[in-house]
Specification:
38% of the residues lie in helices and 26% in strands. It is an alpha+beta fold. It has one domain. It comes from Candidatus Bilophila faecipullorum.
Length: 113
């Protein structure tokens, strides 16, 4: 699976003093998702899924949040498509992959992931 994807913009933007017409995104990690939520909460917008999504895109694209907010719907759609192209498309079948099992001594119960 690809590690990066590009989104072509309808008009150039300026990112950190440089003009660009293409944004390169990398695959997101769980840490990126966590950091995006923290960014949104810091803006008092943690309950807004669009804000959280833009924070994630900002992190994986290396483009400031405020710059992404200036993009039109077509450019956001291109970013979303690039981001989604980096996500796994096949679900694992039962028995494929690893299963983690944890037991809590207090409850003597088992949870599987």
């Amino acid at each position: 699976m690809a590690k990066t994807a590009q989104a072509a913009l309808s008009a150039p933007i300026v990112v950190r003093g440089k003009q660009t017409e293409t944004i390169t995104l990398r695959r997101a990690t769980l840490g990126d998702d966590e950091d995006a939520m923290e960014m949104a909460i810091a803006m008092n917008r943690g309950n807004n899924p669009v804000t959280v999504e833009l924070c994630t895109l900002s992190i994986v694209a290396g483009v400031p949040y405020d710059v992404l907010r200036t993009l039109d719907e077509d450019d956001i759609a291109a970013l979303r498509a690039a981001h989604n192209s980096l996500r796994p498309t096949k679900r694992k079948k039962a028995g494929d992959g690893e299963t983690a099992t944890a037991t809590t001594p207090e409850e003597d119960s088992t949870a599987s992931a």
